[in-house]
Amino acid sequence: MTDVTRAGTESEQSTAEERMNTILTRRKLLASFGITGAAFATAGLLPGGVREAAGQSVGKSVYGNGNPHCDDCVRDITLAELRATPDTTEGYVYYVTDAGQDGHYYYDPGDSTSSDDTGGVVVSSTGQRFKRIMPDGTVNVKWFGAKGDGTTNDAASLTLAISYALSTASSTSKPTLYFPTAVGYAVDSTVTIPANIHVTMEAPLIYMGTANVACMEIGGTASINALLTLKLNVQRAAQADWQSEDSVGIRLINCYSSDIHIVEARGFTIGVQCLGASAGFVYNEVHLGALTNNKIAIDLTNRNAGGGVGWCNENVFLNGRIWCATTANPGKGRIGVRITSQDGTYTNNNNNVFYKPSFELRAVRANPQESLPILIEHGTVNFFTDIRNEGNSPVTIRTLNQSSANELQAGYGTAKADDLSQYPSTAVKSRLGRLIEFNAMIFNSGPLHRKACYYDGDTAVHIPGIGFGSFQTADVYPAYRLGLHADYVAVQGSTYGAPGVFVDTSKCKRFVVKQDSEPGYGGRIHIVCYDASGQILSHPGGTNPEAYVKTYINRTVFWRGYFGGSYSTGSDSVEDLYFAVTDAVKKVRVLFWRGSADLRIRSFSLYAVDRYSPAVWSGYDEPAGELNIGITAPGAGEWVKGKVVVNADPVTVTGTGGPYIVAEWRKMTTGSANVLGTDWLELRTPVGL
Fold it and tell me: What are the residues facing 207 on neighbouring strands?
């Protein structure tokens, strides 16, 4: 055993550097005590301290004056030496020098029962108890023998550290369990940290076991865990197979009004579970780091643990990358956030807010299963804002059971709800779709298949309010060949016409086109631009020309030259199309045509983004308004009794009763029979009388 401060007795041999280190060591001692030397001695921790320091000021006794009597009260010592029989006849403070376990101890002659835990209490071979001086409430897990090398099983050491931390807790003081920087603290069982202990982790727990258990559990079902600061980090050495939800990275139980920072949770079935068990997980601010390779990244849930229902309400979750690597359980489904109940006793988990989480779950690797960012099984009025939706399945949020009034806003990517709730009221929108959502309808085609009728008997089709284009010309036709079906009209080949309308763009320049088409048969949208004189505007030539039509990046158009010269969408789609035109464009023609597959369309509508309400028309003079026109009665198709087709090309006919014209044809029966004179009657108008 050697004196801590040999400079007092060997000052003539000490260098200036050694004396400075001596002073700093003594200062460190007082800083760790948090009290003056005199007060420390008076407190009885050093029975001989007052005697040793007699005749000196506190400052001189601590900082040295060439004869520092108190230097003899602090001894450098190893744990092994401390466990031997030390000299305790004088009141010493023992400074343990073992790396990672260093710190000050004092001898407690009144304790003969405490167990040796290596870090807080050391028992000598003769039964003396030496206790660590811990004025700031921080309990370092390495004091208790934790190695943090990523392979040594530190479970027993962590249990000792947690037990010691709990023993120091009081109603007015909560200790901090501290994991210093290291490779990682390997464990093979659940690390359970009771309520009312702060946790700071500068290195992860690494679960080395094979059982499906929680790696870390904080709090308990019998207590409230309030006003804590938690910095948490866990990994699983071997990726969980996602078969059991008992494999949990971090389980947080009954946390109230706490500041929680999740550095990472990696490789579990459930990454982080926020559980209200016969109490609440409420009013917390949770900072999310990386939630990596988990089947369910974040699970908000509750259960009745024997003392009544639990709940998970009023929490704020900030940021977070919720993602899966390409190697993480390919072919298996994964979920970003789940809000649920373990036993169904409380189904109203509410008002949890997620700010700017990023969901990157790799749908391509989950195939044929789903990569679902958000699943709400039991929750109301929860809010997700500015999320990043990248590489996930088409559905962004799914709601079930009695979940209602949940809302999602996507910053990057699209947003789509699959609302299977008994009270379907999920609201979704995306930043890309914001212009599409806030606009005024200027045209609705109505059900095209219900309004259509044959124009020439059985080939060309007329639809009131709609003009037709042929891809080879710029002409407008009142009717063109279409396929008529019970649920849609079809453009099946290049010989089929493209239905559409004209729109005045002299003032209003931004529009949204929506369509109701069969999935997979959305065809392409073509936009023809005209100048003030009515001439079609061809796409400008040269390097990087400015197009007359511009769209969102998620659905662009390309110059194709069809229909006299048009911009066309690049792929078959039923998605909404936003487009804007330049000042040179005074009107446009919007046409729907087949793409790689047929077009099967039921209806379409146009919306103006700007404040104007522009005119929309078919492009030809419509003699009968909302009625069908034709040149003969239909000879095919199924029509309702009373259907009227106005004659678009009346001519004078000489009859027995005098000249007349056929003004229209009227259906006299319902069904597919189309015999002229029986099922269809001519309505004749006399002329020259």
Answer: 187, 236
**Helix (H, G, I), strand (E, B), or coil: what is residue 13?**
helix
Q: What is the pLDDT of residue 656?
A: 85
**Per-residue confidence (pLDDT) for residue 121, from 0 to 100:** 96
Residue 427 lies in a domain: no
Within this chain, do residues 678 and 550 fall inside the same structural domain, yes or no?
Answer: no
- Do residues 454 and 357 both lie within one domain? no
Please indicate, yes or no, whether residues 598 and 656 belong to a single structural domain of this protein.
no
Backbone φ, ψ for residue 79 (5° rounding) = -60, -40
Whole-model pTM above 0.90? Answer: no
E strand map for 293-382 = 296-303, 311-313, 316-318, 321-323, 334-339, 349-350, 353-355, 358-360, 371-376, 379-380
Q: Pairing mode, if any, of strands 460-462 and 121-123? A: unpaired
305: left (phi over 0), alpha (psi -120 to 50) or beta: alpha
Would you give the distance in Å from CA 363 to the centre of its chain? 14
pLDDT at 575 over 50: yes
| pLDDT tens for each residue of 101-160 | 999 999 999 999 999 999 999 999 999 999 999 888 999 999 999 999 999 999 999 999
Encoded tokens for 666 = 């009227």
Q: Is residue 432 part of a domain?
A: no
143 and 128 assigned to the same domain: no
Q: Which residues, including other chains, have CB under 8 Å from residue 513's CB and lie 6 or more apart?
A: 525, 576, 577, 578, 579, 590, 604, 605, 606, 607
369: which 2 tokens? 């299963």
Question: What sections of 210-279 are H helices per DSSP?
Answer: none
pLDDT higher than threshold 70 for residue 98: yes
Structure tokens at 342: 């373990």
Backbone angles phi, psi at 398, to 5 degrees: -120, 135
59 with 169, same domain: the answer is no
CATH assignment of the domain containing 534: 2.60.120
Give CA–CA dist 44/51, Å, rounded.
12
Count of the separate structural domains present in the chain: 5
The parent domain of residue 124 ranges over 2-132
Over the Cα atoms of the chain, what is R_g?
40
Contact of 570 with 556, CB cutoff 8 Å: yes
Q: For the chain, what is the mean pLDDT?
A: 89
Q: Which of 291, 241, 231 is nearest to 269 (CA)?
A: 241
Rounded to an integer, the average pLDDT of 532-552 is 88
